[in-house]
Amino acid sequence: MDFSNRTNQQSNVASSAQQPTVGNPISTNFKKMGSRVNNDQNKLFRIISSVLVLAVVILIIGLLAYLVYGKNNSNNETSYINTTKLQAVFLNTGQVYFGNLKTINNNYYILDNIFYLQTSNNGSSTASSSSSTAANTNVSLVKLGCELHAPYDQMVINSSSVTFWENLKPTGQVAKAVAAFEKANPNGQTCSTPSTTATNSGNTVNTTTPTANGSNSTVTTPTTTKP
């Protein structure tokens, strides 16, 4: 028997088993680079996701704050309305309307049960070095509704036109005049039919202003004397 050949074969097998397997260095480097790229992408994705979540949270908080505080601001002014009293609304045109405020917001004011003032000057005046000029000013409180254009007894006023508004005491002349008018007209005012005539010469139109049943309440201001 040839033991030498068998011994050589066994030694060859043992030597081949002991030799380490050497991998491809280029493939290993690519795997490491790919792993780093994946880690960087994951970090970037987490950062972007965190930023987006934070932005959404801030947006929601801002929206809630706007709704809550914006509503509270309008309600704060509305809370000053004394619903048992009349209010006076002063416009930047100098006109003032009296009535009951129903709604206040950033866009408009709604006023019901509306009255306004009309003034007329009655009296005589003289001019001399030794005399004085006197004039009596009559202020009439008129109920809205019997004008030529027949408006409803409600007014929507642009908030930018309002200078300020006030609650009125029941002891004031305006509140007393309104109370007297409402007592004289328990079913509300009714307007007479207006008559209108036009002349052929020119564009002048003579109109008779409708009047409400019951006379308008009059508030007379004190006489003023100028030197």
Distance between the termini: 158 Å
Whole-number tally of structural domains: 2
**DSSP summary: helix tally:** 3
Compute the CA-based radius of gyration.
45 Å
What is the overall silhouette?
rod-shaped
Q: How helix-rich are the residues, as a percent range?
A: 25-40%
List the SSEs and their pairings.
Layout: H1 3-18, H2 25-78, E1 87-91, E2 96-104, E3 108-122, E4 133-143, E5 154-158, E6 162-167, H3 173-184, E7 196-198, E8 205-207, E9 217-220, E10 224-226
Antiparallel strand pairs: 1-2, 1-6, 2-3, 3-4, 3-5, 4-9, 4-10, 7-8
Structure description:
With 227 residues, the chain is of the alpha+beta class. Residues 125-134, 195-209 and 220-227 have low confidence and may be disordered. It has 2 domains: 32-79; 87-194 and 206-226, no CATH class. The protein contains 3 helices and 10 strands. It has helices at residues 3-18, 25-78, 173-184, and strands spanning 87-91, 96-104, 108-122, 133-143, 154-158, 162-167, 196-198, 205-207, 217-220, 224-226. Strands 1, 2, 3, 4, 5, 6, 9 and 10 form an 8-stranded antiparallel beta sheet that branches. It has a two-stranded antiparallel sheet with strand order 7-8.
